[in-house]
Amino acid sequence: MQVRLLTAAAVLGCASLLGGGLASAQSLPGPDNRPAPGNEVPALTPRQAGYRPQVNYQLQCSGCHRVDGEGSRKNDVPRMKDFVGHFLEVEGGREFLVRVPGVSLSGFTDAQLAALMNWMLTSDIAGDSTPTDFQPYSATEVAALRAKPLEQIDATRDVLLQRMRDQQIAVRDGLEDRP
């Protein structure tokens, strides 16, 4: 009998401690909350910060396409490494690169996005896949393209990949065997 009373008292004691802690927990900032030292000025968004295109790639693209552009077959994310520039060799490919939702709907300005695309297509990510006559994107071109985001991403991409195959361009996007 005494063991049961001690066990019940222990359970009630723990419950009151937990309940008391939950009742006093604060989930929203109160009027007296202050930022931690060094955080008095709100952080800038990437759009406001004016980062280099390489940093913007890290912030916007590398989460899915990975730092080196290798993509992830497991997550159905195409490889850009040594391949993405081939889109510039087929009709509709240049437009596609800006109109995909991850690009067209990003928070970057048109100029930042143009700089990011130009950096990516002339960096180690694109490797030798970018044509030698590549014309850099302008902010004006990006603005016009991103105003019309793609709705049929996979269907459009499949058409572009078939155009590559028709031109004897090897499709090495890491998703060659997807259904």
From TrEMBL:
This is Cytochrome c like protein. Keywords: Signal. GO terms for molecular function: electron transfer activity; heme binding. It comes from the Bacteria. It comes from Salinisphaera shabanensis E1L3A. Residues 1-25 form the signal peptide.
